Amino acid sequence: MMRKGSNNTKVKVRRGASATQTRSKSSLRTSAFRKRLAQMPWAKLGIHVGIFMFWLALLSGFSYGVGWLDQPITKIEVTGDLLHTHKKDVEAVLAANLQKSFFTVDLAQIREQLEKAPWTKVAAVSRRWPDTLRVQLVEQEAVARWNEKGFINIAGEVFTPEQQEQVVDLPQLSGPEHKVGDVFSRFNEWRNELGSIGLEVSRVSMESRGAWRIGFADGWELNLGKQDVEERLKRFTTLFVKKLHLERERIASVDARYTRGVAVTWKEADTPESS
Question: Are residues 164 and 269 in the same domain?
Fold first, then answer.
């Protein structure tokens, strides 16, 4: 019994020592943690926290400011020297952009949409705060008619607008579609060359087989054929300056497809006269 009691006493002593050791270790860990806290750079940490809070406040303010500045589009302003384009038609085309975001409305898409219109050459689109979409248009400048429904601009490009009744007194050019560049180039050359001798070119045509004809404001035409065109034109201009200009009002047509001269058809007669 004593031994058992003795043994029990020894066991109790050992358990007490273990608890004391555990508390001691916990105290040491707490002390070490406090020391580490004391050694931390609280000033630097405070600066970093302050910077973070500053940027957070700045971003919040920016987000609020953008929301306030980003008003919906409510107006469309159209400018430009417009002869064939109506401002109301442009506004109707762009009506779908009303109430869209001022900052996110797609200006490139609007410009592409406007430049698809036949009479529009260049469209410039911009924003004007707080709620206006500005459109500046530059129209095509037609310098000649092309075939039945087309027009040619100053760059020699063909465009086909729906509204054509407003365009008058333009030279008429015609020919195969793939030859528009050649026809326009000849027209410019011949207009200058023949204009220097008092002839106003009103029409230039290239037939499918390559023959050329020039019409004049006087109402008659010059047939150059398809071969040696420049040589034939030079022969005609020489004769016109020397003789034909004196009777230009009587001329019905001139055929320059001859080797050494031209054939003139007069308004009073149906038979040609060689010169």
Answer: yes
